[in-house]
Amino acid sequence: MYGDKFEITRLPSLPPSEVPSKSKVVWEKISQQTKFERQLYHYGTFQEGFYWGVSSSAYQVEGGWNADGKGPNVWDTFTQKPGNIPNNDNGDVACDSYNKIDEDLHMLRALKVKTYRFSLSWSRIFPSGYKSSLNQKGVDYYNRLIDGLIANNIAPMVTLYHWDLPQVLQDINGWDNPEIINIFNEYCDFCYATFGDRVKFWITFNEPQTIAWLGYGLGQIPPNVNQPGDAPYRVAHNLLKAHAQAYHTYDEKYRASQRGLISISLNAEWAEPLDVNAPREVMAADRALQFQLGWFAHPIFKNGDYPDAMKWQVGNKSELQGLTDSRLPSFTDKDKAFIQGTADVFSISTYTTKVVRHVTSRLDIASYETDQDVKKDEAEGHINTAVNEQKVVAWGIRRLLNWLKEEYGDPKIYVTENGVATGTDITVDDTDRIFFLKTYVDEALK
To answer: Cα torsion for 221, 226, 228, 232, to the nearest 10°?
Structure first.
């Protein structure tokens, strides 16, 4: 995780979505670049004040799944059912960070990081998801962690939601239920009031596209809902409204006294056109980025509404499928004004690059994936990792950062996730990770 130093900024005024994308200059640049130029190593240094950090998430590291009054979340429910995860692994203990704050702080000091990004477990603070179920021991745990970080001159960067919804809230349909918007805001309000005197960087959601698509479309992660044609769009609609409300709550009640930043961590892989000189393939690559990243970034960082590419694609396919309304919900003018500009910096998670080409998808399959009319393939000739879909393609991060700069008006950017998956048999002399970090960081420096 890396980015510029924390400071309060405001996003510049941006043109409406109807104005042709400025990002076309990125395609023009890369179309002239040779493979040799693409892979040249750059020698230089990052500017003073550049923030280096590491990150984690509650379910992945805390353990203590039912310790001291914590309530179950959707990942507890899912992983504790035999057969759902290989080897029946789960996060009941994980890295046991709940019981190892001192050890974690020691390792963070040794790494000499300036910031540590971690997430709060909603069900550890509110076991039932509601404020009325407040668990003080959960609050005490996070207070000890935050105080320990500050004592070691490490700035806490706190994610309010990293996929681990309290099970009680999933029982009322989770993020597919608009009622959760106010429930989430109540949780955020409590966290700002309780930890905001020390936390100066908040992230509302981690990778909302993953929540909507993998959680409610493909059903590959909890809550394992398989409704690919419409649920992802409804869920994303609620996530955007929940994010905006959480932003405004901080803005109106806490910003003046706490002087912190609010962001949302979006995810994207760079989309490389199959042929950078073929307009149809370039349009397909741009469309892939709009569906994955612009789905959330366009409403927040541009004009409060979805990208035109999404509205046209989903609306057109919905009509051809005999529907009277688009499967992509619409925002009212009031919604748009409420959502627009609700992030102080741009936070991005990225790991790899896909090669994208245009395809014409079948109409009898209603799906967020087929709505895009694109096909994504792995980039050939690149190093594999322990995750098949995440090949090491370092030059993609540079292109993605340039695309963000042009598309969203040159915002301050924080890379909130980037890393490489390795096998469990890798020793401490893990040259794979050294190579990954060296090349990706160099591309970011470029």
So the answer is: -60
